[in-house]
Amino acid sequence: MLTEKKEMRILTIGAHAADQELAAGMIIAKYTAAGHKAFVLSLTPGEKGHATLSAEEYAEQKKREATECCRKLGAEAIFLNYKDAELPYNDEVSLEVCDIIRDIKPDVIITHWQNSMHRDHRHAHKIAMDAHFFAALKRIERAKPAHWTRRVYFSENWEDMEGYEPDIYVEIPEPIFEQYCDALSSFALWEGGTGWPYADYYKSLARLRGCLGGGLNWKYAATLMVPRGGMVQRFAGERLPLEL
């Protein structure tokens, strides 16, 4: 285990603004409250999901919402400018994310699981995994030196559930859960503004995972999946799974 004085850096990589805030926001809030740093990278704003606003108007709204949400989670929001539903998967994008990894030097990366109903999520997974690989290779010369991120995890997102297996259960104290709900209310979509009951789903999921992860001892939990072949464990209380 790392000592408590060691500052960790967590980088989440999502296809759209709100993706990782929703799926990993409780974990982000827990670790920033413990003095660690978190960064939320959105590859697109997710700007094409509004019934009345133009894509340009909604992109600006989503960026404002994500920035405020991340502020409440104690994280920094980072945006790339790719288009919703048109996120390309190629080396150019992966190297752009590689540069961000080398700049931030995260100890942990959290991104999408590979199986998703959403094309952008599938591409984001592959981009993140390639970027992680590129960032570690000294022979790939970029502006910043190589950096290897020891831990990569996949968050639990309602659109990415095919084959998702919760390997790590992270206990979420009630104040952190409330902080998460307040932060996510920065997004209009949280209360069903785009036709999907995000708040109901993620609040219920947190309670369900709390029951499964800690029984009567936990009220809320969030889960992560490890790459296949990785170490699968459950961690309770103040034992920080992301520090292993």
Shape verdict: globular
How many separate domains?
1
From N to C, what is the helix and strand string?
EHEHEHEHEEHHE
Helix % is 25-40%
Average residue-wise pLDDT:
92
Structural class: alpha/beta
Describe the strand arrangement of the main beta sheet, using strand numbers: 3-2-1-4-5-7-6
Distance between the termini: 6 Å
**Percent of residues in beta strands:** 15-25%
CATH class: Alpha Beta
CATH superfamily: LmbE-like
Largest sheet: 7 strands, mixed
**CATH topology heading:** Rossmann fold
Rounded radius of gyration (Å): 17 Å
**Based on DSSP secondary structure assignment, what is the total number of beta strands?**
7
How does CATH name the architecture? Answer: 3-Layer(aba) Sandwich
Q: Counting H and I runs of at least 4 residues, what is the number of helices? A: 6
Model regions low in confidence, pLDDT < 50 over at least 5 residues: 235-240
Oligomer: single chain
Describe the 3D structure:
This protein has 244 residues and is of the alpha/beta class. The chain has helices at residues 19-33, 55-73, 91-104, 119-136, 174-184, 198-214, and strands spanning 9-16, 37-44, 76-79, 108-111, 151-155, 168-172, 220-225. Strands 3-2-1-4-5-7-6 form a seven-stranded mixed β-sheet. The longest helix is centred in the N-terminal third of the chain and has 19 residues, at 55-73. It is globular, with a radius of gyration of 17 Å. The relative contact order is 0.17.
Question: Would you spell out the secondary-structure blueprint of this structure?
Answer:
Elements lengths: L8 E8 L2 H15 L3 E8 L10 H19 L2 E4 L11 H14 L3 E4 L7 H18 L14 E5 L12 E5 L1 H11 L13 H17 L5 E6 L19
Parallel strand pairs: 1-2, 1-4, 2-3, 4-5
Antiparallel strand pairs: 5-7, 6-7
